[in-house]
Each structure stands twice: as C-alpha cells, then as structure tokens.
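Q: I'm teaching a short session on how sequence maps to structure, and I want students to see two examples side by side rather than one. Could you give me a first protein with its sequence written out and its structure tokens following it? Keep the formatting plain so it prints cleanly on a handout.
A: Of course. Example one:
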Amino acid sequence: MSAKIRKLIVQVDETRIEMGQGLSTPARKAVAMAVIENPYAGRYAENLDELVAIGEELGGLLGRRCVQALGIEPGQAQSYGKAAIVGSAGELEHAAAILHPKLGAPLREAVGQGAALVPSAKKLGGLGAAIDVPLGHKDAAYVRSHFDAIEARVPDAPRAGEIVVAVAVTDSGRPLPRVGGLKVSEIQGKDGLR
C-alpha cells in the first residue's frame, strides 16, 4: 500500500539569538509534513490496516526529509516527534492508526535509532489547522532540555478527505536550557527514560 500524497512540505526553524544571548551553536528543528488522501474518509471501517501501512511508509520518508533538511547524519539527530490532523470526513482513530502501530520503527531508522517513545499529538481540523508537534530526546525521555514543540500547519489542508501527517526532528535541545534534569552527557539509552 502506498500513501496518496498531494503535497510534501519541509520547514527548518533555526534560533541564533534567544533573549539577547547569542547561541554558540544554533538550535535547529525541522518538520516534514505530508498531505495525504484518507482512504477511510466518510465511512466507518473496523480494520484500519491501510492507514497503519501508510504510517510505516511516512515514518521513514518524513524522518529522512527532516534529517536532510537539517544537513546532518542520522546519528546526529537529538529529538523527534509526530502528529496528525484529520479532515472533517475522518475520525481521530485514523490519526492513531497512522501514528502509533508502525510509524516509529522507520522514523528511528531515519534518525539513527532512538530508545525513547516518540511523543505524539492528534486532532481533527479544517483548512489551515495547526498542531504543535511535541518533541522529546530520542534516547532518554527524562532529558528536560529537549522538551519542546514545533508548529505544523498547511494553509490548504487538510481538506475533508485528507490527513496532514507531520514528523519533527532536531539537532539540539531548546536554546539556553536551564531547568535541570538529566543532561545529554548522562544518557544511558537503555530503557528510553534515562
């Protein structure tokens, strides 16, 4: 099965100065979005396997696009996240079918693995609806410096029978983090928490 993609969008957010403080290394986040046809739009289906397969396909595609946009090697990725906006002819479970069963494994491959759960968000929305894609460190969920988000929005999507699927990847944490927690240098990467 293959996603019917109407549009792909990739954006990079690069922060160089925060609160008047220059950053020695810019904090960069990329978000890649695919606007896809919802094969279950307008009807109830008990089995959502087609969307599960689409999630697997998009996890790798969108993850690779983010890594390419940041100009990094996969192993240099630090955080990741995923989100979906379902058009009005769909249901919230359509987003869950894309995001949860199989999107994670190919995303992890695209970013050079990752032990932590991939943070996610989902909603129903119309044209131009925005969603914040939550971010967390890919190897250790307790790394507070990487708790963040990036907005995903496509002005002409989702149409009623579409879904906007977004994946985000960073090469850093937030600018000027200073609220404690596990440091990147302390990550063990065994259980996805520490």
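Q: Perfect. Now a second example for contrast.
A: Example two:
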Amino acid sequence: MDESLRRAMADLNAWMRLGPLLTEYLPFSATATLRPTGLTALLDEVLLGGRTVLVECGTGPSTIVLARLLARRGYGRLLSIDNDERWTTYAETQLRREGLHGVAKVVHAPLAENANGMRWYSTEVVSPAVAAYVDQYGLVDMLIVDGPPSTDPGQSMIRYPALPTLRWAMAPGATLVLDDVDRPGELTVAARWQDEYDLITRSDPSGTRLAISTLAPS
C-alpha cells in the first residue's frame, strides 16, 4: 500500500476512535494540529500510562479533547501554554462553556528570548504558572511539546528550551511527547534531548509524527 494512503487510512481509523470525545465542532487545522493518529496516541498514553499531571506547550483542539478525556475519566489536570492570544482565548472560553475549567487551565505566554539566547515562551510567565501548578497537583508526569510554531525562518529549534526549562518540574518516569518529528528541526531537538537527558524512547514516530519518550527513573 502506498505510504500516503496508509497514513490516510490510519487517520480515518483514528477519527473513528476519537468520536466519543468529539462531541461538538473544534477548529482543527491540517498544518498546526496533531494528526488524528498522533492525538489518539496521546490519549492512549494518558490512559495506559496513568498520567495525571499534564503540561502542554501549544494550545489547540488537543487541549479541549484532553480535558474532555480527563473529565470523563474522573481525575487528572492539564496546564496548556501558548503564545497565540486568539487560541488561548478560544480554548479558555470553550473550556468554561463545557464546564472543564476545573480540569484544564490555559496560560497565554508571549515569545521572548531566554537566558541562553533562544526564543521560547516567556519564562517570566511560564515559570510561576508551572510552579503554582506543581505546588497544587504535584510533579508533571506528562509534557507535550507541540509549540511554539517552528516553521518561521530561523526558528527550527524553538521547541528545544521546553525540556531544559521544565525538567525541574517533571517526575521520574514522566512521559515526554514531541510533535512534528517529520521535520528536520524537531528531529534535531529530539536528538539533542536524547544526548543531554536520560531518555528512554519507546515508540516509532513514523506514523504519528510523534516522538514519545520517558525520563529514566532516578
């Protein structure tokens, strides 16, 4: 079977699996949203891995779907961070409208140059937000990195600071998910993280565009 057809069939199957959580229209984008197979892999990791304290870099439809899953399961919390004020406003409004604001919180963090000279979300916003979240719910056991956008010229490594910045907040054995590893920049980010941190990669990202790893227990 042709690879593009195989992926299309896999995405169609994923859409069918997602049906129970797609209770109303969400603004999915073909270029800026997790593939359906990626989203189902994410949800499977939450359920099978028993993940309860989630941080998401890159707010989108996945934020709403994850919140719906956590609410239906009956436990777990999500903190989502994004630089796009339109997306964060939409997500916050939608979460409140669906009664999910007790499960998930959205933080708008503009892009800024951090201490090592790389652009990422403003740590002046992110650091206190994550610290308060960890104080309330415990260490993060799943970090999802699907932002900031890395397609602008010169920004292929913009997602790299996520792990160095948030490593302190992550529990031993936490799951780390990086989207868009079919692109050179994200592949480089994944390789640097692998070299610099004690990661155990345990999934083949070829079909989902995801690299899924765990931090080795300390």
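Q: What should students look for in example two?
A: Point them to this: The mean pLDDT is 88. Also worth mentioning: Strands lie at 53-57, 77-82, 104-108, 111-113, 119-121, 140-145, 170-179, 199-201, 210-215.
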